[in-house]
Design goal:
6-stranded mixed sheet, 5-stranded mixed sheet, globular, OB fold (Dihydrolipoamide Acetyltransferase, E2P), mainly beta
C-alpha cells in the first residue's frame, strides 16, 4: 500500500541523521516528547520497547536504526512520532520533528532509483521546496516486516 502524496497535502517534516524526511499528517496521530521505552526481550534490534501513552501500550521503534543510520544520543529535540498502523499505534523515534509544510503538485517528484533496494521500498517520492529536498516516507512500508525482508532478499516471515 503506497501512499502517494497529493497537491495541497500537509506533511510533517522530521530529521534523521541531518536529513529531512516527511510523512503525511493523515498518517500521524501525535508527536510526543521523548520518554524512555521499557525494553521487550526477543524483538528486532530497531525496536526500542514500549511506552504507556495515555493508557495505551505503544511499541516504539528507532527509525534511525530501521533506516540503517548510525545511532545518536537522545537530546532535548528527540521526538516520538505516533503513527496509525493497521489497527494500532506505533511510535517512531526521530532526531527532531518541528515543521509542517503544504505540498504543491509542481514540488512532487518520483524518487530516483537509490543505491539500496531497501530505500526504494520506503521512499517513493521526493518533495522539492525552496532549497529543501524531503524524502517522503511510506509509513506502511517501514512498518511492514515483509517490505524489509523483500528488499534484502530474505523470505517474508
Amino acid at each position: 500500500m503506497t501512499a502517494e502524496i497529493k497537491t495541497g497535502e500537509k506533511m510533517i517534516v522530521f530529521m534523521i541523521n541531518g536529513k529531512e524526511y516527511a510523512i503525511s499528517v493523515s498518517q500521524v496521530k501525535s508527536i510526543e516528547k521523548w520518554q524512555k521505552p521499557t525494553r521487550v526481550p526477543g524483538v528486532e534490534s530497531y525496536i526500542r520497547g514500549v511506552i504507556n501513552l495515555r493508557g495505551v501500550i505503544t511499541p516504539v521503534l528507532d527509525l534511525r536504526k530501521r533506516l540503517n543510520q548510525p545511532e545518536q544520543d537522545i537530546t532535548e529535540e528527540t521526538r516520538i512520532i505516533i503513527i496509525s498502523y493497521r489497527d494500532a499505534d506505533v511510535g517512531w523515534v526521530v532526531d527532531e520533528a518541528n515543521d509542517v509544510i503544504t505540498v504543491h503538485e509542481n514540488e512532487i517528484e518520483s524518487a530516483p532509483e537509490s543505491q539500496t533496494k531497501e530505500a526504494d521500498v520506503w521512499i517513493k517520492q521526493i518533495v522539492k521546496q525552496d532549497n529543501r529536498l524531503l524524502n517522503i516516507i511510506d509509513a506502511h512500508a517501514v512498518l511492514d516486516k515483509g517490505a524489509s525482508a523483500s528488499a534484502s532478499g530474505e523470505p517474508n516471515a
